[in-house]
Amino acid sequence: xxxxxxxxxxxxxxxxxxxxxxxxxxxxxxxxxxxxxxxxxxxxxxxxxxxxxxxxxxxxxxxxxxxxxxxxxxxxxxxxxxxxxxxxxxxxxxxxxxxxxxxxxxxxxxxxxxxxxxxxxxxxxxxxxxxxxxxxxxxxxxxxxxxxxxxxxxxxxxxxxxxxxxxxxxxxxxxxxxxxxxxxxxxxxxxxxxxxxxxxxxxxxxxxxxxxxxxxxxxxxxxxxxxxxxxxxxxxxxxxxxxxxxxxxxxxxxxxxxxxxxxxxxxxxxxxxxxxxxxxxxxxxxxxxxxxxxxxxxxxxxxxxxxxxxxxxxxxxxxxxxxxxxxxxxxxxxxxxxxxxxxxxxxxxxxxxxxxxxxxxxxxxxxxxxxxxxxxxxxxxxxxxxxxxxxxxxxxxxxxxxxxxxxxxxxxxx
Length: 414
Known about the structure:
The model is unreliable at 1-6, 38-45 and 396-414 (pLDDT under 50). The chain is built from five helices and 22 strands. The longest helix has 42 residues, at 2-43. It is of the alpha+beta class and 414 residues long. Strand 16 and strand 17 (335-341) form a beta hairpin. It has helices at 2-43, 46-53, 118-153, 159-192, 242-251; strands spanning 57-63, 65-81, 84-87, 93-98, 105-106, 111-115, 194-196, 201-203, 213-214, 223-226, 231-238, 255-259, 270-284, 289-296, 308-324, 330-332, 335-341, 347-351, 353-357, 362-366, 373-377, 388-390. Helix 3 runs antiparallel to helix 4. The protein has three domains: 2-44; 61-80 and 230-390, Beta Barrel (Elongation Factor Tu (Ef-tu), domain 3); 87-225, CATH 2.40.50.100.
């Protein structure tokens, strides 16, 4: 009986919980409907309300400028040292001392390390002594040859003895030449004990400490030197840019900008300005790209080997081009267009053809003239023939720079 008594109570509690849940859900739905009715009309399309009320639509405008525009192609590059040298021991022996610090700038001919030279100095001394001994024997052989030649002339000895003396002289001359070769080899080996910098550059991490035995067959070098001034950047471009790049190279050394890759959304910083030096002799068939190399002075060491940079290659200049801010270009199913504002404050939809464009401006090749007023903000609320009112720009807004300072996207609109 107790179990039967408890069941109705539990059932009643479940019923009340479901009822309150349904009430709360209904209240939420009613609140959402009221919110939509009250607020959505105020957030709807302004153009319809303004058009119905006969009010002009506020927009921001800018004048289409006529000026020379530099044409750039953008790519991603890898910084590479102009020269990279791994310093290795050419002879075996104990490393006596190291005369450089890690990360130090060194110049060609600077002494970097010293291997114990005593064994190689002894070998050189031995070769010099051997040459002196053979030279003494050569001098004696030449005297004997001169005596035999006089005796042969007076018929006091046979020609055979004179020929034997002549051969003896030739033998000692060959020995002296061999001794000189031994001296040169020993002197070269001795020179290898003093390790000098072959280029101007900066040292990396030291791999061997003084006191260790180094060998000529060691796979790991003692230190790596990289040349930082000048420095190169390898980058690629689509093969469609081949003709433009080739023409720019034929006209001279095209300018190349190296810019820091932006990872924070701020302005891109110019690292260095260089020139294009090499266009690879073939297209990479696997990627459809061409490889290029540019050289930069890098006097401030802003470019570092192994780093990635954004690259802008200047391929030419568009003379007297019509330029508008990028925000003025609208794109629809029929292609790009702009809204031109006439003297009667009426917006006219004008189809245009866009050539080169980047973050700083878009070059309009057809459909627009210099000096015409175009909409740069508020175009989404306009239609052909809409009445507009020119709003004043925000005084705190920063004007767009006239020259490109950041990598853009170079493309040709269809």
